[in-house]
Amino acid sequence: MKESLAKKSIEYRKRILKYIYKAKAGHTGGSLSCVDVLNVLYNRIMNVGPANFDSPDRDRYVQSKGHCVEALFVVLADQGFFPESELETLCQYNSHFIGHPTRKVPGVEQNTGALGHGLSLSVGMAIAAKLDKKDYQVFTLMGDGELAEGSNWEAALTASHYKLDNLCAIVDYNRLQISAPTRDVCNTDPVADKFRSFGWEVVEVDGHDVDELEATFRKLPFVPGKPSLVIAHTVKGKGISYMENVLKWHHGVPNEDQYEQAQKELDSALLAL
Amino acid sequence: MDREINMGKANLEVFSETLQHIAESNRDLLVVTSDSRGSGKLVPFAQRFPDQLVEVGIAEQNLVGISAGLASTGKQVFAVSPACFLTARSLEQIKNDVTYSDNAVTVVGISAGVSYGALGSTHHSLHDYAVLRAIHNIIVCAPADNFETAEAVRQATALNQPVYLRFGKRPMPLLRKDVPFALGKGRVLQEGKDLAIVATGEMVHPALEAAALLKESADIVTTVISMHTVKPLDTELLAQVAAAGMPILTVEEHSVYGGMGEACASFLLQEGFHNRFQVMGIPDEYTVTGSQQEIFDHYGLNGQGIMETAQQLLGVSQEK
Hints:
Chain A is about 40% helix and about 10% strand. By secondary structure, chain A is α/β, with parallel strands linked by helices. Chain A has one domain (about 1-270): 3-Layer(aba) Sandwich (Rossmann fold). A 5-stranded parallel sheet of chain A has the order 1-2-3-5-4, sandwiched between helices. Chain B has helices at about 10-25, 45-50, 60-70, 85, 90-100, 130-135, 145-160, 205-220, 235-245, 260-270, 290-300, 305-315, and strands at about 5-10, 30-35, 55, 75-80, 105-110, 140, 165, 170-175, 185-190, 195-200, 220-225, 230, 250-255, 275-280. In chain B, helix 7 links the parallel strand 6 (about 140) and strand 7 (about 165). Classes of the chains: A alpha/beta, B alpha/beta. At the A-B interface, helix 4 and helix 5 of A face helix 3 and helix 5 of B.
């Protein structure tokens, strides 16, 4: 099972780079940092897929850090929501595969892109589940830089006020944002303490260890009556040697040589499994 | 004429009563408030339907985001907050989470316009038509009286798409009920031949007063339209009025910039109508301090003031 998920993560990375390279646009570093979380959620944890996407009982995933849409699109294609070949049109004229999640793409729960929106949307969905006595779970992925948006903290308050233990937020804690390290732009640390003080139960994990991620998500809710936060410690640009922890790959697009090297590195990683 | 018009309730009270009526048979109807149940006249609703009111505290961005999330699950959501905050602070949530994501939230701006009077500009919403007109996929409606309010709430509930409803807080006179109400269709409350006054929201009643004064003072017979839906604008009705050749005066409790009047002007000019035309509203300046009525009076947004502007537009003497 470990090989299977680990292999998927590498294959997802190859596809993320493929479509960013073709589109000559994309949020490369963040897509590579969050894709293991998406892999585990969609392949192991969430009860959602093309067959039940219209079901009111499906689990919900809201990608608050919408700019890392390439990771989401690749995973949704793999789930069978649409043929992967459609991603050839990413960011092209008249394509519905735009640079942020849109409900025009099958499998996307909510339109996002402006930061600081996903948690409130998710709180609404989680309150609805409580009102309707449904047992679906709501997941939302946020960036650590995104936590400077004040609306997140409004939503964090409400989530604990309503005891939303059916809500799990994940912070893709890669410590870099577009202009500098997060601690230098507007320090959001200590993230765990902040959320704990807001009434959340927090677990910190290696955001690239798919087994640890799976084991963590299987423990949800961490504490009955409390919303759950997973701080996924990640590396921006994960998997590509020259991209890891390098600021410019926030939305850098590889040139031909860089692209080929990246694919070779990922092929080697596949062989090494 | 005005003396024949009976006083009704605040539109907000009718809004709350209508919601209660709908909620009796609709468990999916939810009201979401930001510590605004009192000012929204929603305490009776909260008492009768405690499980159908979601309180988020003083957090308007969260109010709209949560409302959108609730609506995405099939709830019929009314997000209620003072219009000044709701359509400014949480505008991005309206734009992205409600309209762009097409979550069928009815966004309800309460104590709108200059209802808060001397509380000042932080509490006035004179921009809401302008900003919401420029956002795709939302109906913008300001009911004039209790009848229009009840109809607008019922129709918004049935529509299942984003709607903005704007209410003031003072009791409103009861206007005609025999002219049907439909979102997107202006209501001709009286027909004339000399002038058309197109008013929206709580400016409809002073427009009728002005029409009565014009008739009394100069035998000017005025068409008065309640253009409750600012977007989509009833261009068909406007074109009919313009084709009759009458000068057109628009009146709204909103900035003269970007509101219903400019929407009318834009349509008419682009359609080739060159009727004499004037927009009345709140001018682009620091709004004078006063009660709502004092502010209206200061800017001529009352029967007398509208009559005087109409006379200037018509080029008639203001002497009797």
